[in-house]
């Protein structure tokens, strides 16, 4: 198994065996929640200089850093266009006019020439409901480069908008998982896997964000559907406490419903997260390309 890498910005990732830790605390305020495109370019240069030539799953800390999947996917050079599979309770394809943030990066990845298709699976958020329809970037949905897999969300507006084929909506998590496994098992393309643990039910792992309904067995079944094809991966959704120095980040994170995390609960929740990370590493390794 290749050595995992920890982008250590918020001290939330536990001591994984064989890990390579990149100390990046100085980037936390700049990158957390969102950043300008120029800041992300500078961080990309830092990654290029610091990452080893060969590495395994990248752990990014809080889900507030999920937009760092973009430069990580850029680094992958598959022999043929690959699919990107994202476990997430949110589409991460929402409009953000100030650069890129943890809820807007999917559009950027879907535009990359070596990416064939992006699947975001596990959505229960109203972000893809009619009330937020205008906030979703429609380009990748209309172009057939992005599919939302959701349960319990009314997405009938997508039919009126001519995008029904991009929305796979189900009444239950189990029905969504079954359909995803059937569809992805039939494909042979290489896959980059990005896991935001807010897709899981809070009983599996408590995160900073509102959470989905995925159970651990369902997540493993979906990873097993990618058997032998995972060529890159990252994990985010750790839980950590942070107070932004930047006023607009404080304002927007509050508007997105991020609550303060009680100090008394933090250690137990991080221990729960760490145990899940170890199991995720095993599942990813089991389904990675030779």
Q: How would you describe this protein?
A:
- The protein has a single domain, classed as Arginase, Chain A (3-Layer(aba) Sandwich).
- The protein contains 10 helices and 11 strands.
- The protein has helices at residues 28-31, 37-50, 69-75, 106-110, 139-142, 157-160, 173-185, 216-224, 247-255, 263-286; strands spanning 5-8, 20-23, 34-35, 58-59, 82-87, 100-101, 115-123, 146-151, 167-170, 191-196, 230-236.
- The strands form 2 sheets. It has a 9-stranded parallel sheet with strand order 2-1-4-11-10-5-7-8-9.
- It is globular, with a radius of gyration of 18 Å.
Task: From the structure above, extract its key features.
single chain; globular; 9-stranded parallel β-sheet; about 290 residues; alpha/beta; two-stranded antiparallel ribbon; 10 helices; Arginase, Chain A
Note the topology.
Blueprint: E1 5-8, E2 20-23, H1 28-31, E3 34-35, H2 37-50, E4 58-59, H3 69-75, E5 82-87, E6 100-101, H4 106-110, E7 115-123, H5 139-142, E8 146-151, H6 157-160, E9 167-170, H7 173-185, E10 191-196, H8 216-224, E11 230-236, H9 247-255, H10 263-286
Parallel strand pairs: 1-2, 1-4, 4-11, 5-7, 5-10, 7-8, 8-9, 10-11
Antiparallel strand pairs: 3-6
Helix pairs in contact: 7-8
What's the short version?
With 290 residues, this protein is α/β, with parallel strands linked by helices. Helix content is 32%, strand content 18%. The chain is globular, with a radius of gyration of 18 Å.
The structure class reads alpha/beta
CATH C-level category: Alpha Beta
Rg from Cα:
18 Å
H and E order = EEHEHEHEEHEHEHEHEHEHH
Strand elements, count: 11
Named CATH topology:
Arginase, Chain A
| Count of distinct structural domains | 1
Overall outline = globular
Strand coverage percent? 15-25%
